[in-house]
Each structure stands twice: as structure tokens, then as C-alpha cells.
Amino acid sequence: MRVDGSLAADICWYMDDGRPTAGTAWEAWKAARKACSTLIYHGVQDAGRKRTGASQSPDEWAGTMVETVDDRVSLLVSVKKWEKGKVMILRIQEELATFGLLDYKQLEKDRGFLVYLSRTYINMCPYLKGIHQTLDSWRAGRDKDSWKMNRRELLAAITSNYGEVILDKEEEAPIKVKPASRLQDDLDALEVLLEGSIPKRVSVRVKN
User: Fold this and answer.
1) For residue 62, how far is the Cα from the chain centroid?
2) By three-state DSSP, how is residue 76 classified?
3) CB under 8 Å to 91, separation ≥6 — which residues?
4) pLDDT higher for 94 or 69?
5) Closest CA to 140 of 179, 117, 170, 111
6) At residue 100, does pLDDT exceed 70?
7) CA-CA distance, 143 to 43, in Å (whole number)?
8) Alpha-carbon distance 181 to 185, whole Å?
9) How many Å separate Cα 142 from the centre of its chain?
10) In this model, does residue 128 exceed pLDDT 80?
11) Quick one: which H or E segment has residue 133?
């Protein structure tokens, strides 16, 4: 801390990766030097070649890029990841429109990346539900919209004519799965959120 109470320097850790922060590039370099020398003192090897220079828009860290420019702190992803997410949504839409069914394994991989992307763009989270429901649509105890039923709903389904409810449990996932009723709307929403050729910046802290 500085004499006036403001933050002089700090360091954040994610697993085995540390990021020093400071008010100026020179102070950030001194903070990194202090952190590395302390690690070496305690027997933790420091690879100087892996250090990066001080920057207000550094490379990705844990999948997210953090910018401290224009009096604000913003989050975004690389152009490569942004484009990959857009292509992924379009591919799922085309497969759905062409075949009416979706490849389970491929959709599972796509979901993993989209969840990874939603760590930066949290507004995507509600619209991943359709993909979750589609991947679970083959499981027992699901209604026609792939929602998991509670005990009362299951008993009502058993005593009725079953309708479109799946009650028999399969041992493993099928090769193709039926889309959940909300999937198309969710894909349309995700397409809107990923519009544009430049990754959107999410403001997490502003000066005013």
C-alpha cells in the first residue's frame, strides 16, 4: 500500500500462474521481480523466459483476456475463440435444420466449449439450457420438454397413458438425440450474443 492508502501493487494467482498488478509498468515489473525472487527463495523454480511484459491488455489468462483501458476493466476472449463459438452455433443450427436430430458426441464437445466461453460472457448461461436438455433428452424420468420430473410427476405419468414421457432407462446415450423444445430459440439467442467479427467487451469495473 502507498502512504495515502492506495494500492501500490498486488498479485493474483490461478493454479501455478501468477499475475502481478501495479499502477505503472515499472512498478509492475518490480512486483514481478519480488514475487519471483520470493518463490526462488522457497525453492520454487522460476522460468524467466515465461515472463511477459507489463500490459493493459495482456494475453489470455484462464481463458479470459482482461483489459484495463479507457478508465474501465473489461473482459473478452481472443478473436479465434470468438469465431469458433460463432461457427459452432451455425453448425448446430444447420445440422438441426437438415436432419432434425443431433450427433450426441459432437454436441457434447460443443457444449464443453460453449460453457468455457460463458465463463467470460455470463449472459450466455441461460441460453445453454436447451443444449443441456437435448443431451439429457434420452434419460429416464424426463417429460416431453426434457425437464427432469419430480416424484409426484413420475407417479402421475406411470398411472396415466405415459404420453411422451421416457420411463425406461437406457444404458448409454444414443448416437443421435432429439432436440429439446427450446433448443432453436436458445440457438437464435446465442447467435445474437455472438454477433460481429470483433469479440465483445464486458465491463466489470468502470471509473464513473
Assistant:
1) 11
2) strand
3) 110
4) 94
5) 170
6) yes
7) 57
8) 9
9) 26
10) yes
11) helix 129-135
CA atoms of 110 and 119, how far apart (whole Å): 15
Q: Are 149 and 143 in contact (CB under 8 A)?
A: yes
User: DSSP state, 10?
Assistant: E
- Grid coordinates belonging to 180: 429439446
Question: Grid coordinates representing 170?
Answer: 437406457
The cell for 3 is 502512504
Which three three-digit cell numbers place residue 197? 467479427
| pTM of the complete model beyond 0.85 | no
Beta strand extents in 124-187 (DSSP E only): 176-177
Q: How confident is the model at residue 166 (pLDDT cuts 50, 70, 90)?
A: low
- The rounded radius of gyration (Å) of the Cα atoms in the chain is 24
Handedness of CA 62, 63, 69, 73 (dihedral sign): negative
